[in-house]
Design goal:
The protein contains 21 helices and eleven strands. Helix content is 48%, strand content 8%.
């Protein structure tokens, strides 16, 4: 029966491969899709994991269908308490709402809750002759691996237990011998599973020994390995497309072989290239730029991190770089997926965060929350009581900082003079002051003070020019003395915007302080 299955499946696979390869230009779905993100809860969600989740989510939203979150926690020894909850919270933070998953949907979405299902399907493979029980000890397997490595061969199981008779197997089972269940992999010349079409990498051919070892499906404790649980769940959950990291590309022949052994159609695969550090090394959870939680703690907005992550391996068909999540949902395509590895760069992300921050501050639905967040951050940075930091002042300061502000947490350091009179005895203040001849300092400040004694009826530019004319000095000197008095810095916002942002009584007080400071020297 197994041989008939192989012959039939080989013909089917060849036809499917030819059809898929011939349809390379038409890889976009034509019917609703079901996709899944299936992380292992072994730590914080990695940027690569967020990208995988995002691309699956966007495919579901772009073409209609469901996005499923499945927690692959079969490796109990590596579980990190709270990691699964952290993954859910991170996806929610990013706005990637799943249609089915923990706490939502008709199924069980933790693989640790589905052990009976996997054992049932492993037994089905045993009954079909597509799998067998392996009673080899750990010491024998280690010795085999050492010997093969010493001979320059790739480690692979030698099928020592593949030909045990039913009587031998029964005797071992009655004796309580520990055992695993292994798949009976296709032979090296069988092309059914090793030849397939990948949406990203196109035509793949793994025919030969690579990828065809007899993988363990059930461990000796009765728990499934990734290979069995992954395939069974993808079938039972009716997954149509599998978008995952390219580290799983070499395992795809095994998974396709299992689909064939069960007599199930395999989903379409898209293996996403690795994310890289600027030095060319692989981005990992141990890198500072790896965990998503690090980006959240650094103050990046979800809109900017999602936008940035989407551009790591996907190219829109327009020059557009700035995307909202809704725009990504409408623009995403499988044809835009790239085979090239993507380098993670904070510089580009920072630029995106500045753009999304500016857009959020202009959106009444988002600005109130950002103002309250910045208010608390200003209080923490300045030592002021939160109650004394007025929301209106924070809103004005955010507008004044403009594109120079990457994070709301940097607001106080960007424009500290918005939350109190500036220090005038600093190096920065001195650098502003030395740009104006010393003998003009007091005369310009006197002229400013006199001009502000009456209501200013002209623009601030006109005001500065009038003061310059009255004091018989260049306008640029008036502007610099204003900057010195109002901010204590050489560089900063444009003077007209600064004068608009500060109350007139504060401007008058600061000019008087500047006079006192200079006269005391």
């Amino acid at each position: 029966m197994l041989q008939r299955l192989r012959v039939c499946s080989r013909q089917t696979a060849s036809r499917a491969f030819s059809q898929q390869a011939g349809a390379a230009a038409n890889i976009e779905p034509t019917a609703p899709v079901r996709v899944r993100f299936a992380p292992s809860p072994t730590g914080m969600l990695h940027l690569g994991g967020l990208r995988t989740a995002l691309f699956n989510y966007l495919l579901a939203r772009r073409y209609g269908g469901e996005f499923i979150l499945r927690i692959e926690d079969t490796d109990q020894a590596r579980l990190v308490p709270g990691a699964a909850e952290g993954i859910v919270q991170t996806l929610e933070w990013a706005g990637l709402n799943f249609d089915e998953g923990p706490g939502k949907g008709p199924d069980k979405y933790f693989q640790s809750q589905r052990s009976d299902i996997y054992r049932k399907h492993a037994q089905e493979l045993l009954d079909r002759g597509a799998a067998y029980r392996c009673f080899c000890s750990t010491s024998r397997l280690e010795a085999l691996r050492t010997e093969q490595t010493a001979q320059g061969r790739a480690p692979a199981y030698d099928r020592h237990c593949a030909h045990l008779s039913s009587r031998q197997i029964d005797e071992k089972l009655r004796a309580g011998e520990r055992h695993t269940v292994r798949m009976r992999a296709p032979s090296a010349e069988d092309s059914d599973s090793g030849r397939f079409y990948d949406i990203v990498h196109r035509a793949m051919d793994f025919r030969g020994p690579a990828g065809f070892d007899d993988a363990v499906l059930l461990k000796s404790d009765g728990q499934p390995t990734y290979h069995l649980a992954n395939v069974v769940d993808d079938h039972l959950m009716r997954i149509t497309h599998v978008l995952r990291g390219e580290e799983w590309l070499m395992s795809t022949p095994k998974h396709r072989a299992l689909f064939t052994a069960f007599g199930w159609p395999a989903p379409q695969y898209a293996h996403l290239p690795l994310l890289m550090n600027p030095d060319g090394s692989k981005l990992s959870k141990r890198n500072d730029d790896g965990p998503v939680q690090r980006y959240i703690a650094d103050g990046y907005l979800p809109e900017s991190l999602v936008n940035y992550t989407a551009l790591l391996g996907w190219h829109p068909d327009t020059p557009q770089e700035l995307f909202t999540l809704r725009q990504l949902e409408q623009s995403f395509s499988l044809a835009g997926l790239s085979r090239s590895k993507s380098v993670v760069s904070r510089e580009r992300l920072d630029w995106l965060n500045r753009q999304h921050l500016r857009a959020a501050l202009a959106d009444p639905d988002k600005s109130a929350g950002l103002i309250q967040q910045a208010r608390a951050e200003v209080a923490a940075a300045s030592g002021l009581e939160t109650a004394s930091v007025r929301p209106e002042t924070v809103a004005t300061a955010l507008h004044l900082a403009g594109d120079r502000l990457t994070f709301t947490k940097d607001l106080y350091n960007a424009v500290p003079f918005m939350f109190g009179d500036p220090a005038l005895d600093t190096t920065a203040a001195e650098q502003a002051l030395i740009l104006v001849p010393h003998e003009l300092h007091i005369s310009i400040l006197n002229a400013l003070e006199h001009a502000l004694a009456s209501e200013v009826s002209e623009s601030w530019i006109g005001f500065a020019k009038s003061v310059a004319a009255a004091a018989q000095v260049p306008t640029k000197h008036v502007m610099m003395m204003l900057r010195f008095a109002l901010t204590g810095e050489r560089f900063g916002p444009k003077i007209p915007e600064l004068l608009d942002a500060l109350p007139v009584d504060s401007i008058k007080r600061r000019i008087q302080r500047a006079k006192t400071e200079i006269e005391s020297r």
